[in-house]
From TrEMBL:
Keywords: 4Fe-4S, Iron, Iron-sulfur, Isoprene biosynthesis, Metal-binding, Oxidoreductase. [4Fe-4S] cluster binds at C35, C119, C217. The active site is at E149. This is 4-hydroxy-3-methylbut-2-enyl diphosphate reductase. The gene is ispH. Pfam families: LYTB. Signal peptide: none annotated. One of its GO terms (molecular function) is 4-hydroxy-3-methylbut-2-enyl diphosphate reductase activity. Belongs to the IspH family.
Length: 334
């Protein structure tokens, strides 16, 4: 069964590049794929496996990518939903999306040896939630209900945080003091939709404070910017990523919003339907922040077999950020 999400919404205008006599080409978004937080989280599990041997337990998917999870599972990682599934005294890694203080406590109660792979940029949002809760603000957390990151952040200050799941949820928000309200956000949202939500919140609460710095992380923003740059020229955009990857799904939406005639999400090259390529001249390719490059290479090879061998990079930023491994594994990286 294909896991492609058919988000082609039937935009009818023709792209300039759609002329039948123009050459077939691929526009390849740069940056794409692994961000610094995902790179660190995956390496954390690999180093933990080397140091402690299998099995290693990981609470939730270490990052939201099928291939990464299946590969680690084959190497001896056991993924669990909660720490009470981990045998007492075992090693457990917390995923890049972060956990609430309750999860830390429950792991401590079971004498688990924890390694925290929470992305430092998620930890930053946790710190903001704690700080503004201490100052007794109402915190409006913009994010997707049920997403692990949102659960972890909200868990830092459950009495102060309210989830706002998009612009339409704004009408339901109530606060104690309109002069002590701040918004924070999940790190992997659509920048444009989040700004729309903030605008609507501000119409209701004119004194609404902004976060001290951007919560939507550099990687999410950079990948959306690159897609926006190439999408207007694309008959089709293929985003490599998993359905449960928030930032990957956002890339499909951003591509369509920026003018791509169709956009699909695939985990693997084998999910690309040849029918999508009919009458198409320019294909944009990108990948979510949890996607290893080997999966993009697979899609490029498949497209080359269909005559799309001309690959042109569309570069909008160069990323150099690298995060240190969790303290207990730093020696392993050296
Ligand atoms: S997408 Fe952003 S917040 Fe999430 S792991 Fe990557 S760098 Fe960290």
């Amino acid at each position: 069964m294909s896991s492609a999400i058919p988000l082609n919404v039937g935009i009818t205008r023709s792209a300039v590049s759609g002329a039948a006599d123009s050459p077939k080409r691929v526009l390849l978004a740069e940056p794409r794929g692994y961000c610094a937080g995902v790179d660190r989280a995956v390496e954390t599990v690999e180093k933990a496996l080397e140091k402690h041997g299998a099995p290693i337990y990981v609470r939730k998917e270490i990052v939201h990518n099928r291939h990464v999870v299946e590969t680690l599972r084959e190497r001896g990682v056991i993924f669990v939903d909660e720490t009470d599934e981990v045998p007492e005294g075992s090693v457990v890694v917390f995923s890049a999306h972060g956990v609430s203080p309750m999860v830390h406590s429950s792991a401590a109660e079971r004498s688990l040896h924890t390694i925290d792979a929470t992305c430092p940029l998620v930890t930053k949002v946790h710190q903001e939630a704690k700080r503004f809760a201490r100052d007794d603000f109402d915190i409006l957390l913009i994010g997707h209900e049920g997403h692990e990151e949102v659960e972890g952040t909200a868990g830092e200050a459950p009495d102060h945080v309210q989830l706002v799941d998009g612009p339409d949820a704004v009408d339901n928000v109530t606060v104690r003091d309109e002069n002590k309200v701040i918004w924070l956000s999940q790190t992997t949202l659509s920048v444009d939709e989040t700004m729309e939500t903030v605008q609507r919140l501000r119409e209701r609460f004119p004194s609404l404070q902004d976060p001290p710095s951007d919560d939507i992380c550099y990687a999410t923003q950079n990948r959306q910017t690159a897609v926006k740059a190439m999408a207007p020229e694309c008959d089709l955009v293929i985003v490599v990523g998993s359905r449960n990857s928030s930032n990957s799904v956002r890339l499909v939406e951003v591509a369509l919003g920026a003018g791509a005639r169709a956009a699909y999400l695939v985990d693997y090259a084998r999910e690309v339907d040849p029918a999508w390529l009919e009458g198409v001249r320019t294909i944009g390719i990108t990948s979510g922040a949890s996607v290893p490059e080997i999966l993009v290479e697979g899609v490029l090879e498949l497209l080359a077999d269909h005559g799309f061998g001309d690959v042109q990079p569309v570069t909008t930023a160069n990323e150099t950020l690298v995060f240190a491994l969790p303290r207990e594994l730093r020696a392993a990286r050296a």
